[in-house]
Design brief:
Layout lengths: L10 H8 L2 H22 L4 H30 L3 H22 L9 H29 L4 H29 L1 H19 L17 H9 L5 H32 L4 H28 L1 H19 L7 H30 L6 H30 L8 H32 L4 H4 L1
Helix pairs in contact: 1-6, 1-7, 2-5, 2-6, 2-7, 2-9, 3-5, 3-13, 4-5, 4-7, 5-13, 6-7, 6-10, 6-12, 9-12, 9-13, 9-14, 10-11, 10-12, 11-12, 11-14, 13-14
Amino acid sequence: MPDNASTPWGLGAGLRYGLLGLPLAFCALPLYVFMPNFYATQWGVSLAALGTLLLALRLFDAVLDPAIGHWVDRLAAGPFARLLAALVSAGVLLALAFAALFHPQVAAADALAWAGVSLALTYLGYSLLTVAHQSWGARLGGDAVQRSRIVVWREGLGLVGVVLASIVPALWGVTPTAIVMAVALALGLWALSGAPRPQARVGAAAPLPVHLESRQLLAPWKDPAFVRLLVVFALNGIATAVPATLVLFFIQDRVQSLPSMQGVFLGLYFMCAALSMPLWLRVVARLALARSWLLGMVLSVLAFAGAAAVGAGDAFLYGVVCVLSGLALGSDLAVPAALLAGITARDARRHGVYFGWWNFASKLNLALAAGLTLPLLGWLGYAPGARDAHSLQALTLVYCLVPCVLKLLAAAALHYFFIQMRNGESYAT
């Protein structure tokens, strides 16, 4: 495949580049949806301890991402074989650590420590692959249509991975999940080795003095547009991560559905997100990026406000909530990446650093969601399996109200920074 950004972006190129998004998304969902429930219900780890662990590891992992992004920038400037070897090594680490996370080989008393070590290694491999994959796509360049098409392939195949991850663990268990993950990861890396490659920047890999290296890492924070987008992205991301962290507890204890329905609800949610992406592209064409994202936030608030009315046995009503919130998720997947692409295109030397900070924010969202909401639930009196009125009221409050408040704050910031402010208009169209 030619090493340039002008290669026609057809079906073959899209699959070769985007396929790695499938196992990465497949990996991510169990980490923040199934893992807390797995260790709480099957290994007896307290919610407070899990929340503290997830917060600490996510924060540590997130701090590494900008440095990982800078390292990826340097790798991308050198021989392609060196970059590919680093990606394969990260893939092996990720597959092994992911399998270990869901197969503890210790007594119940040591389960938290096992989770901590295996989760830290999983995060490391995942971060290396994610930042490298995203910055690879950004380096391919092209016009707005080309950049959007690249993002759609990555996010679209990622949604396929999410749908699989929402079904496989619930129906088949953790061992098949680890096997599917490893096979998909190997296929994704093999496909990426033949994907269109961006041109290496001559001389970019030369070592820099320490003070200049630090400037490279902090450069995105001097970009006002990036900082504003990150504020909106963080508020919105936490709002999305809170119900994702608590969804299995809500299904089990509030909806009280059969275990097999967990995969159905999650699959419905993510399939609606995938099916809505062409619709959101049409909305963007009419309303522009920022207003389209704002519409998605409003739809999400309405969905989670409706979830407060769900009671025991209301599977159909909760299915409607999944459909509406899934449709809203499509805007979260399509719009922020397009806004970010417009910003990073102005600083082609630092794609990896920008995406490193972007992933820092993503992981901080998940860390805060798990690290704050799980202990908050325990403090409010909820424990997994509790179905008394007080416990269910606490669960509903955190699952429904907290996301709505955060989404409204994100919507206000989005409107002010990217719709009302004139200097944000170039990124909102």
